[in-house]
Amino acid sequence: MASETGIPHTTTAPHRVVVLALDGVIPFELGIAQRIFGRARAAEGPCLYEVVTASVRPPGPVRSDADFAILVENGPECLATADTVVIPASYELGPVYEEGVLTEELASALAHITPGTRLISICTGGYVLAAAGYLDGRTATTHWSSAEHFQRLFPRITVDPEVLFIDDGDILTSAGVAAGLDLCLHVVRRDHGAAVANEVARRTLVPPHRDGGQAQYIQRPVPAPQFATTTAARAWALARLHEPIQLRDMADQESMSVRTFTRRFREEVGISPGQWLAQQRVERARHLLESSDLSVDGVARDAGFGTAQSMRGHLQAALGVTPTAYRRTFRAGALSGPGR
């Protein structure tokens, strides 16, 4: 469980993740939690998470959206043992998707979840959390193609269709399919720091952090032809994060006007160049705080924030902790698990 600062307490017990497999589940999304959480380890230590799968019915086969069923060996009672519950997408949500109400069977299963359990949805798994009332008054996301329907069905929720995932503390929602990977890696990073999350990402052959949001994946009705990208400018900036970088400097790398570069950057990445730079500098600072003995002032300089005060503000906004608190908590190998 987390402390009042949002930082997990140190303990030797693995954090228990229970994945709820519903009829019509998408096999790829069902396997994301095991792939990410199941591979997270402390430095030369044991697994940090224990991942199990549960059904809303007694143990037995659960239909998938493929041509095979999945044998689930745990019934809904298993949800009562969870520190985190993950709900992947299903193509057979029935009244949950059509009317925004839980079936009696699903409501009975969710009743096993104890207060304080962290909840995660992948893609349209968010419909289950919404129908159960967990998302009322919160901001959430889902696959961009379902966002309008989701908002109409659940008007008490603020739907953000642009982002890959939303971390609202004890409840986290993600967009479609691969965004579940982004969200689970984010949770590992939040629980155990960038070093552990980056190692999981490296072994999974996925980026530890994807830039931007869903906007870059939405097909436009009449897309304008583009022959130039902002890739070179991003690579140029990443190699110079420790230096002052102006928007004009980045635009010059692509031989574009600032206006054209900014528009093209947003189309490709989903956020502004300034927002992207701030994200990269935060990630750089996290890495240095975990892996180096640089002073906080030195980390601020190397990450491009200039001053410790500036870096402190960015980390507080992005992570909710100060640089000193982050370093104390997430030094490589210092934390063994968030516990139960």
Structure, described:
With about 350 residues, the chain is an alpha/beta fold. It has helices at about 25-30, 30-35, 95-100, 105-110, 125-130, 145-155, 180-190, 195-205, 230-240, 245-255, 260-270, 275-290, 295-305, 310-320, 325-330; strands at about 15-20, 50-55, 60-65, 70, 85, 120, 140, 160, 165, 170-175. Helix content is about 40%, strand content about 10%. The chain has a six-stranded mixed beta sheet with strand order 2-1-5-6-10-9. α7 runs antiparallel to α8, α10 (about 245-255) packs across α11 (about 260-270) and α12 crosses α15 (about 325-330). The chain is globular. The chain starts with 14 loop residues before the first strand and ends in a 10-residue tail after the last helix. The relative contact order is 0.13.
Give, in spatial order, the strands making up the sheet with the most strands: 2-1-5-6-10-9
CA radius of gyration is 21 Å
Bin the strand percentage.
5-15%
SSE arrangement, N to C: EHHEEEEHHEHEHEEEHHHHHHHHH
Low-confidence stretches: 1-10, 218-227, 332-340
Relative helix content: 25-40%
Give a quick account of the main beta sheet: strands, pairing sense, barrel closure.
Answer: 6 strands, mixed
Average predicted local confidence, pLDDT: 87
Structural classification: alpha/beta
Shape: globular
Please give the count of helices. Answer: 15
- Determine the N-to-C terminus distance: 5 Å
Q: Please provide the count of β strands.
A: 10
Say what oligomer this is: single chain
